[in-house]
Here is the input.
Amino acid sequence: MKSSVTSCAVALSCDDCGRNLPLDRAVTVCSDCGGLLEYRYDLSKAGNVVDYVASHRASGIWRWRALFPPVADDALTTLGEGDTPLVSGGRLGGRMGLPHLWFKNDALMPTGSFKDRGFSLAISVARTHGLTGGFTYSSGNAGASFAAYAARAGMQATVFVEAAANETKVATISLYGARVYRLHYETSAQIFDTLDRLARAGTYSFVNFINPVRHEAMKTYAYEICERLDWRTPDVMVHPVGTGGGIWGAWKGFQELRALGLIDRVPRMIGVQPAACAPIVDAIVHGRESSVRTGDASQTMAQSMAGDSMIHGGRRVLRAIRESGGAAIGVTETQIADAIVRLAAEGIAAEPSAAAPLAAIASAREQGLVTANDTVVAVVTGSALKQPGVVQQIAPKPLGDVDADAAQWLALLDTPPRSA
Ligand SMILES: *Cc1c(COP(=O)(O)O)cnc(C)c1O
Ligand SMILES: [Zn+2]
Here is the structure.
């Protein structure tokens, strides 16, 4: 394998039995016990990451390649993901009593969701190991991202998409050339069982956490945000939680920056879920070690963070939230709809799951979980265009019909602007 950047990764170790596996082949779960695998790094090999990043020609997430699993140069698969804008909370932050509010706008990613960080890396690693295909199951965005990067890499993607996924998401996955099947199941146990069998049989999967690579790229949230804030840590980071890959990866990234001496603490990680289907919120409220299936995913428009099976009982997510002193917040459909409108009034169009962090911040502010002094980063994980049905439902209708007639237009332009 030829790689112009030396990775600091040293092993993959099993969450359950602690066994270390070498990095030289494509693996998903532990070959001994079926536990989840996590990449371990020797950060002393990272050297001065900041100097390196500043001087290097790579862009986006690939500026941080030394902190990723090893990738061969000719396997690197990119569409320009990462380095998304960190936009100030503007008037909205002021109105909420949060002058240091920020939006990390991952709606600007190549396929319109933050999933692209993970798939750029996961496809690159899979390709490094010579894989020519694989599968994932998805509520839509993961499937689209997987399909796009697989297309780019000339790999065959197979996507089992949740029956509730909207037509646009399903069609997008097909458009990128993936093989798509609509997934039907009665209980999440059936999904776990199926995924477990496939993993143990050695079938390569891109499902979060069974695949040990995807969340490694979510560390770049932490790198990009802290770099942009001149190596200050935000006090609070808010991310929607489906499988938990996003929040776990971000937390891992902050910990690495702390270990590297670039920041001195880790933010409080706040996970957000739809109140209608909130296994992590439920586990935190009841003090459980792992989550159990609760709620009804069909009762929320926040498709991207509902109905995901909590692989391994969500234990990693619960750990990130608890050890960081964070929280898990459930948000109602009304709160989500309100957040979509308020974000749009700041020029940011988010799909429901991506607006949910703003809704959670509003309620965290009311509960005193965040205060005016806190620097708070809400990740906007996906674009409104991903769920056109919701946009059409929530947005105001056109005010009326008009001809190509200057007098008519003038009369209309004289009317005062709509109030917010
Ligand atoms: C996938 C997704 C989530 C949930 O992310 P996880 O890593 O599964 O927790 C949230 N928002 C959007 C827009 C997504 O696509
Ligand atoms: Zn094991």
Remarks:
- Residues 106 and 114 are 5 Å apart (CA to CA).
- The pocket of pyridoxal-5'-phosphate (ligand 1) is lined by residues 113, 115, 141-142, 208, 240-246, 304-305, 308, 351, 353-354, 381-382 (CB under 6 Å).
- The chain has a mean pLDDT of 95.
- The first helix runs from residue 49 to 55.
